[in-house]
Amino acid sequence: MNNTTSSISPTQRAGTRDFIGPALALLAWFGILLQLWLSLRKGKTLADGLLTYVGFFTVLTNIFVALTLTLPVYTPATRLGRFFESAQTSACAATSIALVGMGYHFLLSHVWAPQGLQWLADVVMHYLVPASYCAYWLFVLQKPSLPWWSPLAWSTYPVLYFAYALVRGAALGVYPYYFIDVTSIGYGGTLRNASGLLLGYVLVGWLFLGVVTMIGRYRTQLSE
Hints:
Blueprint: H1 10-42, H2 46-53, H3 57-74, H4 79-85, H5 87-108, H6 116-139, H7 150-154, H8 156-172, H9 182-223
Helix pairs in contact: 1-2, 1-3, 1-6, 3-4, 3-5, 3-6, 5-6, 5-9, 8-9
C-alpha cells in the first residue's frame, strides 16, 4: 500500500517533536513552579512549605516528566541526559503521569475544590500535562519495541514513592493522600489501596504498549 499523503515521514515527526517537546516542557515547568510558589506561601515556614510540596506524587511525577522533556535537549551528552531520553524512562514517565491524571480525577477531584491560582496549578498538573504528555509519547516520540515486562520494571517508581510516603508520614504524622493515610485506615487498608493502584499502573503500562504496537503496525502499513 502506497499512501504518501497520509503517512508522516521521520523528518516531519522530528520537526513536530522539536516543536511540541519544548512547549510541553514549558507547560510542565509552569505548573511545577506555580505549585511551588503556592506551597511556599501556604507553609508556616519556607521549609514547611517545601516539605509539603515534595510529599506529593503529582509534584514529583510532573518534575519527572519535565526532566524527560528538558535534559535530553540541553544536556544530551551527559549520563542524566541519556537516561531521561531513553525509551524505558520516557515510557515510565508517561505511565506515571497517566496515573496522576486518572487518580486525581477518580479519587481526589470530589474531595478537593481549589480556587484561583491553585485551581490553575491543579488543572495544569493533573489534566493538561498528563493528557498532552501521554499523547506526545504515544504519537510523536519514536520508540523501539519495548518488552512485555517493561511495566513491571516501571512500577519500581511508584513503589519507591509509596515507601517514601510511608517513611515520611511516620516521621511527620501527615500523609499526602487519604487512601494511604495510615493514621486513618491503618497499614492493612493502606497496603490494599496501594496494591490496587499498583495493579492499575501496570495495566495502564500494558495498555500503552498495546497502543504503541498498533500505531507502529498502522504506520508500517502506510509506508508500504
